[in-house]
Amino acid sequence: MPKWLKAVLRFFVGEPIAQRPASRTSRPTGAASRQRSYPLIGLKEHAGEGRPERLHWKASHPSTIRRFKAEVTCSQGHGIALRDHTIEADGRVVPSIVCRTPGCDFHEIVRLEGWRAGRIPAAI
Questions:
Q1: What are phi and psi of 67, to 5 degrees?
Q2: What pLDDT digit, counting tens, does each position of 41-69 carry?
Q3: Contact 44/114 with Cβ under 8 angstroms?
Q4: 39, 91, 118, 124: which could form a disulfide with 112 (CB 3.0–4.6 Å)?
Q5: 90: alpha, beta or left, given left = phi > 0 and alpha = psi -120 to 50?
Q6: Torsional sign, CA 97, 98, 101, 104
Q7: Which residues contact 111 (CB under 8 A, 6 or more apart)?
Q8: Hey, is 81 helix, strand or coil?
């Protein structure tokens, strides 16, 4: 801190400002400290016909893949279409998947294992 600023502060406060040393237990502030860390759940690709079994995914038909991307089945067996999600090239789904069936508490951050269609952004 410049000397002139210290002098001005001393004039108004009456004593020098001492900085408190950071403790070993101090945490970072800002958005990074408020961000929660949830585990990334890997969902396996469904290899058969029909709806995928629990915690599996199936790509949409090639004619609708840009719009519906994939279908996921939650841990309770409810089907979820990933229409409003972005699927990254590595299979990560953004934002997290929430099952909207009443009474179901499935809410996970997932990665579609074996995703081969590249990055598909959410519909605008």
A1: -95, -50
A2: 999 999 888 889 999 999 988 898 888 89
A3: yes
A4: 91
A5: alpha
A6: positive
A7: 40, 41, 42, 43, 90, 91, 92, 93
A8: strand
